[in-house]
Design goal:
Layout: H1 23-27, H2 32-42, E1 46-50, E2 56-60, H3 63-72, E3 77-79, H4 81-85, H5 87-90, H6 99-109, H7 115-133, E4 141-143, H8 144-160, H9 166-180, H10 185-190, H11 200-226, H12 233-239, H13 252-283, H14 285-299, H15 313-325, E5 332-336, E6 340-342, E7 345-347, E8 352-355, H16 357-360, H17 404-419, E9 422-426, E10 434-437, E11 441-444, E12 448-453
Parallel strand pairs: 2-8
Antiparallel strand pairs: 1-2, 3-5, 4-12, 5-8, 6-7, 9-12, 10-11
Helix pairs in contact: 7-8, 7-17, 8-9, 8-13, 9-11, 11-13, 13-15, 13-17
């Protein structure tokens, strides 16, 4: 796919698109997703606005600018305010750390996500999925979003930390929901002192965090008591030594931050992507039937396996399309720490630059009929998108999601494992399920379905 170059705008001054500070925030009624949409609508390449606290915000929507933000200005940008605010939960883990420390931690964790490791995880992914579905009955009603959260949390525990989280999944899932529910555009603007405010969402978050901490410190303590290398990611992190420093290993606090980050990133995003996938499939029975037929043709009566992935292109296309229209990481921001030029504009220190898969992945310049759920756009002879940087659900550059291949493998195998035996119909009108922009893009208030056993 050819790159398309955006002509530079005037380098002399900003074009500030809001008529008064905070206009987009007021028009969106505090909805972060809608606020980003409104900004991008004013200029489809690079929109600039001022917040009510005087901060400069830019939304870079053109794929060339997305690439520049994610890969071309790494030394002049750091994680934006959105992820900085999640330090309350994540501490100084892979998602929030910066510079040499981040690169060191990423190098330590990377072997757990190599292809041969993921191949070993694949059997666990399928086995846990089938174990969950074995408890379903034909016609049963349940929230498949919640089921996907419990399932992916179970898989992360078994594959990355060699622990059974099933007994703790309900409590941890509720605690994660309460913590993530505190995230909003107001938290980004006001800062962590909002957690001290007497608001119901903030009280729930303060109560939930100790529950998560206790569960994670218990996992760390179990590994320390065991004393052996279990071959999982946590064992690798515990055995690592700071060869450039005093030779010490990670403290329990740092281990907690990394485990918390991987619990959140390793299950929350995939669970939401899967929940939205079933939401789309329930509305498109023709797509669902074609998907099930592909799985049956490839796997027959046996469960899917890692070796089947190349023979499941339509299954992958369905998952790709769901993440295009409902990207779990719907927006990411960078804070400017050294002056840069972006699209011909000089961008000052302190500005926040946002790139949004939600916006770029729905732009008609790069996609045919962009709001239509159409998995065929990913298959030959079609060749969408028309710009290779117009699809970035896992970010890019040095901050590309470390678990991208884990997520692709898990998503495709879980979809195939369930679609071969079950189909789902929605228990409420489709538009009653709305995208809720917190740390990730969750379906609210869930995805109630009725499951039907396939013949």
């Amino acid at each position: 796919m050819p790159d398309v170059t955006v002509p530079p705008a005037s380098p002399l001054r900003y074009t500030v698109h809001n008529r008064f500070p905070g206009e987009h925030l007021l028009r969106s009624r505090g909805n972060l997703l809608r606020s980003v949409e409104l900004m991008a609508a004013t200029d489809r390449d690079l929109a600039v606005a001022k917040t009510i606290v005087g901060r400069t915000i830019l939304v870079a929507s053109h794929p060339d600018l997305v690439k520049e933000v994610l890969t071309g200005q790494a030394r002049s940008l750091r994680k934006g305010l959105g992820l900085q605010r999640t330090r309350f939960v994540l501490g100084n883990g892979l998602l929030t750390s910066e510079g040499e420390f981040h690169l060191r931690q990423r190098r330590l964790a990377q072997p757990a996500f190599h292809r041969e490791r993921i191949a070993r995880y694949a059997d666990v992914m399928v086995e846990r999925t089938l174990a969950m579905a074995s408890g379903w009955s034909d016609g049963q009603r349940f929230d498949i979003a919640r089921a996907m959260h419990h399932l992916t949390l179970d898989i992360v525990g078994r594959t990355l930390f060699d622990v059974d989280l099933q007994g703790r999944a309900a409590a941890m899932g509720k605690a994660l929901t309460d913590v993530l529910g505190s995230f909003s555009i107001w938290l980004i603007l006001v800062g962590e002192r909002m957690y001290d405010w007497p608001l119901p969402t903030m009280r729930r978050a303060r109560r939930a965090l100790p529950i998560l901490d206790a569960a994670i410190y218990e996992i760390i303590a179990e590994h320390r008591r065991d004393g052996r290398d279990r071959g999982d990611l946590l064992s690798m992190l515990m055995s690592a030594r700071d060869e450039e420093g005093d030779g010490s290993g990670m403290s329990d606090q740092q281990l907690r931050d990394e485990v918390m980050t991987l619990v959140l990133a390793g299950h929350e995003t995939t669970a939401n992507a899967l929940a939205w996938t079933w939401w789309f499939l329930a509305q498109h029975p023709d797509v669902d039937a074609r998907l099930a037929a592909e799985v049956r043709a490839v796997c027959g009566d046996r469960p899917p396996a890692m070796a089947d992935l190349p023979q499941l292109p339509y299954t992958r296309a369905v998952f790709s399309e769901a993440m295009r229209l409902r990207p779990p990481a719907y927006a990411t921001s960078r804070e400017v720490v050294a002056p840069i030029t972006l699209g011909g504009h000089a961008v000052p220190v302190g500005a926040q630059v946002i790139v949004s898969p939600w916006v770029t992945q729905r732009d008609a310049r790069w996609w045919d009929d962009p709001l239509r759920f159409d998995p065929d756009r990913w298959l030959a002879p079609r060749s969408e998108p028309r710009h290779k940087q117009a699809y970035f659900p896992f970010g890019g550059g040095t901050r590309l999601c470390i678990g991208e291949q884990f997520a692709w493998t898990e998503g495709i195998l879980l979809i195939a494992s369930l679609a071969r035996g079950w189909r789902f119909t929605l228990g409420v009108p489709a538009d009653a399920i709305r995208p809720e922009a917190a740390v990730t893009l969750r379906p609210a208030p869930g995805v109630p379905v009725r499951c039907h056993r396939r013949p």
